[in-house]
Structures are given as structure tokens and as C-alpha cells.
Amino acid sequence: MGLAMLVGVIAGLGAVVFFSACQVVSHVALDSVAGYRPHSPGGEPPLLSDTQTPLRPWLLLLVPMVGGLASGWIVYSFAPEAEGHGTDAAIEAYHRRQGLIRPRVPLVKIVASALTLGTGGSGGREGPIAQIGAGFGSYLGTSLRLRAADRRVLMAAGMGAGVAAIFRAPLAGALFASEVLYSSPDFESEVIIPAGLASVTAYSTFGAVFGWSPLFSLPPELLAALTFDNPLSLVPYLVLALFMIVLAMCYTRTFYWLTYLFRRLRVPRKLKPAIGAGLSGVVALGLYVVFGRQPEVLSVLSFGYGALQDAMDIAPSGEASLGLAAALLAIAIGKILTTALTIGSGGSGGVFGPSMVIGGCGGGALGIVLHHIWPELAPHPASFVIVGMAGFFAAAAKTPFSTLVMVSEMTGNYNLLLPTLWVCSLAFLFSDELSIYSSQVVSRARSPAHQGNYVREVLSGMSVGQFVSLPQDFPSLAPGDGLPRILEQFRNSSFHVLPVTDVEGHFLGIVSMEEVHLASQSPHIDALIVANDLMRSDVAPLKSRDSLDHALELFVENDQPELPLVDDGEVPRVIGIVRRGEISRAYLRFMHGEADGSKHPDYTL
């Protein structure tokens, strides 16, 4: 738990560095060069003042390409696994890599993501900062030589801490770390408490530097208007849930389709992020021209959080035009394209942030339409912006509960908790199986990280004696046997480990083939070496009554392919040799309904 808190502090500091780097790159590349100043959410004022440079739209084709080129060169030169959205890489490491992330990956991710997002590439900040926190958790666990299970927990806690800091949502960060690992309603229970502690320290670290306001600011009069007081209003929210499902399906399919096309594209990998970012600029410039040079539609570039803040600031009277609804829908669809182009091409960024923009703008567009059709049940379009943010990501990422809490914390508003729960639940239930996080697994039972637990449950009910059919004799060594005798015994047997016994067969230790091989490399001392010199006496042998899961533990602890089997006497006598691979065969035989080892007379260990 103490280590989890330390991981949270580092994740918070990483969030501070990453946020500052993004602000600096955006100020130089977009503001100073292209004259484009993305709107900031209310709780996150820009660090640097505007340069007053006039907008040069044509540079929005060039600047993202330069950023993509620099990002691609850095990623594919130093850490190719830092491409794409970092949360998916962290999920992959949890399930399939025992929580291992190379230490250089977080550093590369900070630089590459700041260049990608700060120059206009479409993406979110949660992916890079999640991988930064996860990377430090993995590094700490590896440095302290913790068990793989503990390293995985620290890695997941770091992932949640990064999200908690960058979105100022500590409770959501803890829930996200345990929920995002699976595509079903399953939680990683062992992660929640460490992730909660890490999220608290990460949030506190980031807040001490940049303040404690929620990411999006809502004025008091708007908060008063965003209430739930009519059960019939669940009907338009049902329509919102269905719309978010369709929009999420478009998002995931577009993302994976463009990712597939970029992987098939026969150009150097280092150039692909530049191509994707350049095409994102084409989409943004096209919308800019179609909508009469309105700078708001350029929110399809970079983070785009300003578009959400503007959508929430719709007048409390709700008198919003259908033209505004069209612009919000265009931003949502355009953000799908630009995110898929930027991240699918290998650019470095997250997918949660764009999901908030897509869901919020799409929900706001629907809210305006429903307000014009049915103002009594859809009195304020801004409520559809907030609920749409949560519902869309619940459908796209299969994380209904952490997303519900995250949107509430990001807006500092729990007035819409009930309709948000309604929409998130429906969006999760009726969405298809395709998730934006391809590394998710269905449940704990399907996770490679937990397969050993289920094997252990089966093996714990069986003993070694149930499955062994001992041979008539087996090779053994005496303490005084010389090296020629030892070599002869290994040549005449198929074992890699031989027991050393006294004249009465009592167990003394083992000699491994590896030690014999090393000793044979010094022919000038052959005559001096005996089995007692090569023997390991610290090896724990197996007993017939040992359960198979305990036997498996002994193989791992002793790091040997074979172990002697001894009887239950006060001074144990060696009665056989057991191979590690036979434990796996025993498990498979049991799973196929053949638990009786006597059915297989050739089953000799």
C-alpha cells in the first residue's frame, strides 16, 4: 500500500510534466505558428498567454505533419511499444506480460505524445499519462524484485493514478484501473484499494500545482437547471443511449479499419504518424470551410475539450439553433475521423479524451433536437452533453461505472447521476462486443494473469502419490562418486537432475547436469571432483502426500526440471524422481475426466 502511494506521487508529477509539455508545444506550434488557439475547459486555463498571431488555416495541414513526423521518429527509434494509445498497452502488459513495461517507455511516451497532441494531432491525455503511471509501477515492482502479481497491481494502480491526476477524478481513476481490464462487468478486486491510494496521492500532487477545480466549470445557474425531477425524461435519455451506441460502433469500426489500412501501407513506419496527422488536418480544414470558417469546428484537432465547455455553456433557456446542433454533430463525426487517423497511424495519444468530445458533442446535438421536439422532457441540451460523454465511452470501452463517476467528477456535478447511470447501463448492455481497447479480456477466468489461480484450485485437491507409478530402479549418486562416474550416470539416464544418497538411500541433495557440465570444463581437476562438491543440499524434495499445487511451488522455488521423491520416514529415503512436465499432464488428464493415474500404466515419473 505504501508503494502504491509512492506510485501515485510519481504519476502525479508525471501528469504535471506532461500537461506542461503539451501546453508549451501547443503554444509554440498552434498558437505562435498557425494562429490557432484551442478553447480550454473552464477549470483548466492556459498556462501561457495568447500571442495574438492571426489564424493561418493552411498551416493546420503542415504543423500536425511535422509533429507526427517527430513523434514517429522518436517512438520507432527508441520504444516502438509506445505507439498508439497507452492505456491499451498497459492492459496488455497486465494480462500477458506479468506487468512488465520497459522503463524507457514512459519517457518516450511523454515526449512523443506532447509532440503529437501539441501540434494538433487528435488524441487524449489519459493514454500517455496512464502508461507513465503504469510504467513507474512496473519499474518499482521490478527493481524491488516483487512477485509478478504484486508488480501487476502496482502497474494497474499507476495507470489509475495517472487518469485520476490528469482528469482530476480520483475516485474514477481507482475504479477505472480495476474495470478497464475486462470487457464484461468484472472488476479486478485486488487493484481497487491500491489504485485508490495511488489516485489520492496523484490527484493531490497534481492539484497542488494546478489547483483543485473540476476540469469543466459549470456556473451555478446551469447547475440549478441540470436536475432530474421527472421520470418520463428517461424516455429521451433512452434515445440518447441508443444514439451513443450507434456512434460508438462507428468510432470503434472506423478506428480499427484505419489502423488496419495504415499497417498495410507500404511506407516506413516512422512516416505513418505524419501521414495520419496530415490527413487529420485535411478533415479539420474541410469542416472549417464547410461551416463558414467557424473556428469552433477546428476542435476536431488536438484535445477538443473546449468544444465540450462551449456545448455545456448553452443558455439555460435551451434556445439553441439547429445550426448549432449540426456543428456539434460535425465535430463528433470529425473527431472520430481525426482520432482514428492520428492514433491508428501510430501517433501517440489516448482515446478516452476524444471519446468525451465525441459523446458530449453528439449528445448535445441530439439534446438540441429533442428540445425543439419535446421541450418538457428535454429542457436543457447541456444535460445531454454531460450524460452523452459517459454513455458513449461506456459503449465504446465497456467501462460503465468508472465512466459514470469520472464524468461526474470532471464536471463537479452529481445532479445527473441517475440518468447517467441509466444511459451507461443501457449503452453497455446493448452495445456490441467490439471495444476500443483491444487488449481487454472477457473476465478474470480468461486472463492469462490469473490462469495459474484456476490451475491451482484444481491441483490442490490431488496429491503426487495419486499420479505416480514408480519405476523398479532409478539412477542415484553417492557423495564420493567421482566425475567420470557422475557423467556415466547422466549418459545412461534421461534425467537432468540426480539425487545424492547415502548407503541406506537417505536423501542428501541433488546434482544437476548444468553443474556437471561446468565442472567438466576444467579437465585438470577432474580427479579431485566428487558428487559431494557439486551437490545442492538446500533443495526440498517431494513427498507422496504433497498436493500437486505444492509440488508445482517446489519446482518453481528450486528452479529445477526434476525433483527427487522421498518417503515419509523420519530420515527420508529417495523412492523416485518426478518431472515437472508431468504435473501439467496430471492437470490435463484430470480436466478430461481421467483422474485415476492407474489408467495409464506408462505414466512413470
Describe this protein's structure.
With about 600 residues, the chain is mostly helical. It folds into two domains: about 1-445, Clc chloride channel, CATH 1.10.3080.10; about 460-600, Roll (CBS-domain). The protein has 23 helices and five strands. Helix 1 packs across helix 6 (about 150-165), helix 10 (about 235-265) packs antiparallel against helix 14 and helix 10 crosses helix 15 (about 380-395). The two termini are about 45 Å apart.
Defining traits:
elongated; disordered C terminus; two-stranded antiparallel ribbon; 2 domains; CBS-domain
Mean pLDDT: 85
Helix content: 55-70%
**Run of helices and strands:** HHHHHHHHHHHHHHHHHHHEEHHEHEEH
* The CATH class of the largest domain: Mainly Alpha
Strand order of the largest sheet: 3-4-5
* Record field, number of beta strands: 5
The major sheet is characterized as: 3 strands, mixed
β content, as a range? Answer: under 5%
Number of helices: 23
Q: Which structural class fits the helix and strand makeup?
A: mainly alpha
Principal-axes shape call: elongated
Number of domains: 2
Which spans have pLDDT < 50 for at least 5 consecutive residues? 595-605
End-to-end distance, in Å?
43 Å
For CATH, the homologous superfamily of the largest domain is named as Clc chloride channel
The radius of gyration computed from the alpha-carbon positions, rounded to a whole number of angstroms, is: 30 Å
- CATH architectural type of the largest domain: Orthogonal Bundle
Instruction: Enter the CATH topology name of the largest domain.
Output: Clc chloride channel
